[in-house]
Amino acid sequence: MPLKLSPSLLSSFIITIIFFSEPISSSISSDDPVWRTIEEFSGYPTHPTSASLPSPSFSVDTETLQNQIDELATFSDVPAPAVTRVLYSDKDVLARSYIKKLMEKAGLSIREDAVGNIFGRWNGKDTSLAAVATGSHIDAIPFSGKYDGVVGVLGALEAINVLKRSGFQPRRSLEVIMFTSEEPTRFGISCLGSRLMAGIEELADALKGTVDGQNISFFDAAKSAGYNLNHEDLKNVFVKKDHYSAFIELHIEQGPILEEEGLPIGIVTAIAAPASIKVEFEGNGGHAGAVLMPARNDAGLAAAELALAVEKHVLESGSIDTVGTVGIIELHPGAINSIPSKSHIEIDTRDIDEKRRNNVVEKVHQSAVSIAEKRRVRLSKFQIINQDPPALSAESIIRAMTIAAEKLNLSHKLMISRAYHDSLFMARISPMGMIFIPCNKGYSHKPEEYASMEDIANGVKVLALTLAKLSVD
Ligand SMILES: [Zn+2]
Question: Quick one: signal sequence residues (predicted)?
Answer without folding.
Answer: 1-29
